[in-house]
Fold Peptide/nickel transport system permease protein.
Amino acid sequence: MAGSTLASPSVEAPPLARAPASPGRETWRRFRRHRLALASVAVLAVLVGGVLFGGLIWPLAIDDIDFAAQLQGPSWAHPFGTDDLGQDLLARMIYGGRISLAVGFAAMAVASLIGVVVGALAGMSRRMLDPALMWLTDLFLSLPQLPLLLLVIYLFRDSLKAVFGVQGGVFLMIVAVIGGLRWMPVARLVRAQFLTLREKEFVEAARSQGATTGHLVRRHILPNALGPVIVAASIEVSAAIIAESTLSFLGLGFPPDIPTWGRLLFDAKDHLDVAPHWALFPGGAIFLTVLSINFIGDGLRDALDPRRVF
């Protein structure tokens, strides 16, 4: 038709491709889907913040004795009650929580460091070193941990106290003993990761370009094996806190004037019928801490597992 123009069909622009999320943001997205892990982070943050900064809000001394307030229940003057000497349990729990958490995280660091080193050496070895290190790992796994803990503490407690002082010596001894007896699961996990990753294509490509074994471990294998190690390390924190509480409950941990959560439980065992609050609050703190760390470990396992898509 004269004078008519043909309208060209409209061409829609292709939608813009969404930029891929960074590994950190993707891990956080996966982690926050785990509601219990997210709630556990909040609970653990409250506990850690309470023991670190609670002394600024509740500045009572842990050794103030008031015989007129013996074995009192929770009140406005003593929110967590008092012990058999009239000492404020809230102040003692704040002080003791710092030690219990410090032991847990320090022992976790020792166990993770030893486990990563042993597992990496075994995973990269192709000769006799791998069987020897795994034999050593199996040997430590077969040892009864609690009797061995008691034996080592009995043998070396006095000598360490003489060198580092009472509190410092006991702290170093407990951290070294617990960390030295908890590295085996981390070592086996790291070894399994290294055995898998060292045969991957990107490692073979780096090796073909002349990369040394140390470079392969530092730049390619170890960073890709850290996900399961972080999960295992989170579990080791709770295991170390329980171990320290067990030692203190048996009277072999810190001395009586240093009120760790386990020591408070030990002191409360003879007064459960008249002062149950004395054991309830430190026991509840240990329970909440261990439960929170375990749920955080579950959330990290799901977030760091690339096979899980949700």
